[in-house]
Design goal:
The chain is α/β, with parallel strands linked by helices. It folds into two domains: 31-153, Nucleotidyltransferase, domain 5 (2-Layer Sandwich); 156-371, 2-Layer Sandwich (Nucleotidyltransferase, domain 5), CATH 3.30.420.150. It is 50% helix and 17% strand. The strands form two sheets. Strands 8-7-6-9-11-10 form a six-stranded mixed sheet, with helices on both faces. A five-stranded mixed sheet has the order 3-2-1-4-5, sandwiched between helices. Helix 3 (117-126) packs across helix 4, helix 6 crosses helix 14 and helix 7 runs parallel beside helix 14.
């Protein structure tokens, strides 16, 4: 038993420890502006939960008014819609929310919680919409905040926010942005100089949903050769028909000079294809480069290991430790099958813009995963 004095000393110790821990967490974030507020955006995505910590400047007259501080994700594969993935997604949702409030000491009013369009599209496609509502209700109950807003974003709004959060103003009206997510693909462009009205591009296919459709075709043969064969059939079938139709309806070919791809597949492809460009958030590519990359993923996947890729880097001025870490992260997030699905889908879309008479400039955006959530946070802050 502790004496009253001992209890007071113990309480004081834990109080001071907690305060110092919170202060340490706050000060560990590298703030950019003198007067700013830190906000958190937590998104329920198709593969899992993502949290972005964003510093927003107060009364900033500059265009660069926000600073991405931290990006964290927990993979839970929510769109498999099974009890285990539901439980792991709920737990991750609560864990990241508690991390924002407790570890980073962010006020609940400054935490924005949303469900991505990829989850919405996949749920509607599979008749699982009630899973989203059950997740949201369970989350509110678990964090004891029944009035918390958890918005379910539709593809058009997510595409608009992604464009605003990713594409620089200098290329705002000449760029067609396509975000390849886990559960769907969405994007668009602003044809009339009005950022409130985006011309939407939408597919019900994403990296994970393409991989899932491929897995369902494999029967008892789980080999990589059979996966590759079935993936080609999936991409040549309904996916290709939908891509051709969506591109034609969008009118983007005639209206856009630049075709920019964001999302996990774009980040992973850029990282493995050009590991030496680690400091470049945007990487220009050609259709041929991505085509050869996709073929090599199947025929020689070992060549994309950290050890193999690091041997190809001759520039000693580069931070090789950081490069190796980024490669390891990609290998952890995307296995061979996921990479084949993501790059295969990327190629199918690129093919529609690979014209004979007019060449488009293709770009892979590596930090696009926080683009739309940062724009969402920005537009929801009380000015």
């Amino acid at each position: 038993m502790f004496s009253p004095i001992s209890k007071r000393i113990l309480f004081a110790f834990f109080f001071l420890f907690s305060v110092s821990f919170l202060l340490s967490a706050q000060t560990s974030l590298k703030l950019k502006y003198r007067r700013s507020t830190v906000y958190a955006g937590i998104e329920v995505g198709s593969k899992g939960i993502k949290m972005s910590l964003i510093e927003m400047a107060k009364n900033s007259s500059k265009g660069d008014y926000y600073n991405m501080l931290k990006d964290t994700s927990i993979n839970t594969d929510f769109i498999s819609f099974t009890p285990p993935t539901f439980s792991s997604t709920l737990q991750a949702f609560c864990d990241l929310y508690n991390s924002a409030t407790i570890v980073y000491n962010i006020s609940p009013d400054n935490i924005f919680t949303v469900v991505s369009s990829g989850v919405k599209v996949s749920a509607e496609k599979d008749g699982k919409t009630e899973w989203i509502h059950n997740l949201v209700d369970s989350f509110k109950l678990r964090i004891n905040d029944p009035n918390r807003k958890v918005e379910i974003i539709d593809p058009k709004e997510e595409a608009r926010l992604s464009h605003l959060g990713i594409v620089p103003d200098s290329k705002r009206y000449t760029t067609f942005l396509i975000d390849i997510g886990s559960g769907n693909t969405k994007g668009g462009y602003f044809p009339n100089g009005n950022t409130n009205d985006i011309k939407l591009f939408e597919l019900t296919w994403g990296t994970k949903s393409t991989a899932n459709a491929t897995e369902k075709r494999m029967d008892d043969d789980k080999s990589i050769s059979n996966y590759y064969k079935q993936l080609e059939r999936v991409l040549a079938g309904d996916a290709n028909s939908e891509i051709i139709y969506a591109v034609n309806v969008s009118g983007a070919y005639n209206m856009s000079d630049n075709i920019a791809f964001s999302g996990g597949a774009a980040w992973a492809t850029a990282t493995l294809l050009f590991p030496d460009l680690i400091n470049n958030p945007v990487v220009p590519v050609t259709y041929e480069e991505v085509e050869k990359f996709n073929e090599k993923l199947y025929s020689d996947y070992a060549s994309f290991s950290p050890k193999a890729l690091m041997k190809s880097i001759k520039d000693n001025t580069l931070d090789k430790e950081a490069i190796a870490k980024s490669i390891k992260t990609v290998n952890k997030v995307f296995d061979q099958k996921a990479m084949l699905a993501g790059s295969g889908l990327l190629l199918k879309i690129m093919r529609q813009f690979e014209g004979i008479h007019e060449k488009k400039q293709f770009y892979l955006v590596k930090n696009g995963q926080v683009g739309w959530i940062s724009a969402y946070v920005n537009q929801n802050i009380d000015k």
